[in-house]
């Protein structure tokens, strides 16, 4: 099935939230790769057993290590020089039409941008793509996955392509972003999508994510999580059972809710609820203060 492969796992998927995208998952696989690409391919190297990989692309040999990114254009072939050490990586395959939408938004003069680099070592770049794959492989909302993808595509087109913009891309009118923000506040318990926010704001999906983050300090999916957690804290304080709270504010399940709560506040929902119960019990034990002079009765 996989000539040259030694152990490991290879799997493919097409996330329904991301039309035009295919994901390839490779786990601990030793293989001599020779691959033709009909899409833009972004290879996120997670682990190469403490070694490096030499690969041939555009008649040059490049060396890649863990936490590096490999970039390949449509219509081209890349090949390894020999069987790789056991490697773990992810490949994001993006249909050229999606990239064309972004470059049009950036006012670039070409609809098929040329990648000016083939390997990226910058930690923020690796982190962005690693977060995208993490969201696709674990419990995450549709908005979270779409937002991570938008961030990654903007990085790819803005930082890695040869471009000549005809106009400057400006921050949109704040009222458009406020409409998206207010939509999140109103429908926070539902499965909000990036397409819905784009429609409400009148912006493209790709432009919205960048502009929203610039205006409010975080992308839409992260903002949605913060709204949900703030609502959850209030419900916990009011005594609602934790399992009901998770569903009430829109989290998929209790574990999803607990993970986000702990990451944000440093305590689990159960620990927070325990502190609230203790606080309420203490308040009940304290007698109310008596105002004015008390009357004294003598027999």
Features:
20% strand; Arc Repressor Mutant, subunit A; 6-stranded antiparallel beta sheet; 10 helices; disordered C terminus; 4-stranded antiparallel beta sheet; alpha+beta; Jelly Rolls
What does this structure look like?
This protein starts with 8 loop residues before the first strand and ends in a 14-residue tail after the last helix. The chain has helices spanning 96-105, 123-137, 142-159, 174-186, 194-201, 205-216, 220-237, 242-248, 254-265, 269-285, and strands spanning 9-13, 21-29, 34-37, 40-47, 53-57, 60-64, 69-72, 76-80, 87-94, 114-115, 119-120, 161-162. It is α+β, with helices and mostly antiparallel strands and 299 residues long. It is globular. A hairpin with a 7-residue loop joins strand 1 (9-13) and strand 2 (21-29). It has 2 domains: 9-168, Jelly Rolls (Sandwich), CATH 2.60.120; 220-285, Arc Repressor Mutant, subunit A. It has a 6-stranded antiparallel β-sheet with strand order 1-2-9-4-7-11. Strands 3-8-5-6 form a 4-stranded antiparallel β-sheet, with no helix packed on it. The protein has a two-stranded antiparallel ribbon with strand order 10-12.
List the helices and strands and how they pair.
Layout: E1 9-13, E2 21-29, E3 34-37, E4 40-47, E5 53-57, E6 60-64, E7 69-72, E8 76-80, E9 87-94, H1 96-105, E10 114-115, E11 119-120, H2 123-137, H3 142-159, E12 161-162, H4 174-186, H5 194-201, H6 205-216, H7 220-237, H8 242-248, H9 254-265, H10 269-285
Antiparallel strand pairs: 1-2, 2-9, 3-8, 4-7, 4-9, 5-6, 5-8, 7-11, 10-12
Helix pairs in contact: 2-3, 3-6, 4-5, 4-6, 8-9
């Amino acid at each position: 099935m996989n000539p040259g492969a030694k152990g490991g796992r290879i799997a493919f998927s097409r996330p329904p939230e991301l039309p035009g995208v295919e994901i390839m998952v490779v786990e601990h696989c030793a293989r001599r790769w020779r691959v033709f690409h009909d899409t833009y391919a972004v290879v996120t190297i997670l682990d190469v057993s403490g070694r490096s990989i030499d690969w041939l692309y555009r008649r040059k040999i490049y060396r890649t290590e863990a936490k590096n990114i490999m970039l390949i254009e449509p219509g081209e072939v890349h090949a390894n020089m020999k069987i790789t050490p056991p490697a773990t990586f992810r490949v994001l395959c993006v249909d050229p039409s999606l990239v064309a939408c972004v470059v049009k938004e950036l006012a670039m003069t070409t609809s098929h941008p040329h990648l000016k680099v083939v390997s990226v070592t910058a930690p923020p770049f690796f982190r962005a793509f690693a977060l995208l794959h993490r969201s696709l492989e674990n419990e995450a909302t549709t908005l979270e996955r779409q937002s991570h993808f938008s961030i990654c595509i903007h990085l790819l087109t803005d930082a890695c392509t040869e471009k000549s913009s005809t106009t400057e891309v400006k921050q949109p009118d704040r009222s458009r972003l406020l409409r998206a923000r207010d939509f999140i506040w109103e429908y926070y318990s539902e499965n909000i999508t990036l397409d819905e926010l784009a429609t409400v704001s009148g912006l493209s999906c790709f432009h919205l994510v960048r502009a929203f983050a610039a205006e409010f300090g975080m992308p839409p999916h992260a903002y949605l999580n913060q709204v949900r957690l703030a609502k959850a804290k209030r419900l916990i304080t009011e005594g609602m059972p934790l399992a009901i709270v998770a569903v009430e504010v829109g989290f998929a399940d209790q574990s999803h809710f607990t993970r986000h709560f702990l990451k944000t506040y440093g305590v689990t929902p159960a620990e927070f609820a325990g502190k609230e119960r203790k606080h309420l019990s203490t308040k009940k034990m304290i007698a109310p203060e008596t105002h004015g002079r008390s009357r004294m009765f003598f027999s």
